[in-house]
Amino acid sequence: MYPTNFRYTKEHEWVNVEAGTGTIGITDHAQKELGDIVYVDLPKVGATTEKGKVMGSVESVKAVSDIYSPVSGEVVAVNDLLTASPEKLNEDPHGAAWLVKIKMSSPDDVADLMSAQDYEKYAGEE
After folding, report:
1. pTM here?
2. Looking at the domain that runs over 7-105, which CATH code has it been given?
3. Which residues have a Cβ under 8 Å from the Cβ of 85 and sit 6 or more positions away?
4. Over the Cα atoms of the chain, what is R_g?
5. I need a surface site. Which of 31, 36, 97, 110 has the fewest CB within 10 A?
């Protein structure tokens, strides 16, 4: 269910690292918990993020939830699809509905994140 090449946080974000750039999104578990997503607030291209710090938010009909960056670095791309169609996060959270791409300043940031198997167990216990 969860892509095995991704790494996961306890706050229900994922990161997929390719060539020093981390693509970040929220997990399927997170979108199910939130319900119908109606708005996404993301950082601007050029902004810097710090691992574990808030970098945006997702608003659903139930609540507003902060998005925490799983890695540190510079935002190099933002998924504009979500501005017009935030509901895509409910439909494809591990694919087309990625949030941002970050040029990582510290590749070691992913070392303490969970594997897909560990995350699935963690999310199942919540």
Report:
1. 0.96
2. 2.40.50.100
3. none
4. 13
5. 36
* Residue 84: other Cβ atoms inside 10 A: 8
Q: 30-86 pLDDT, tens per residue?
A: 999 999 999 999 999 999 999 999 999 999 999 999 999 999 999 999 999 999 999
Q: Is the pLDDT assigned to residue 26 strictly greater than 90? A: yes
Domain locations in the chain as residue ranges: 7-105
| Token representation of residue 47 | 């902004």
Q: Give the model confidence (pLDDT) of 105-119 as tens digits.
A: 998 999 999 999 999
Q: Based on the number of CB atoms within 10 Å of its own CB, is 115 exposed (0-12), middle (13-18) or buried (19 or more)?
A: middle
Answer with the residue of higher pLDDT: 1 or 103. 103
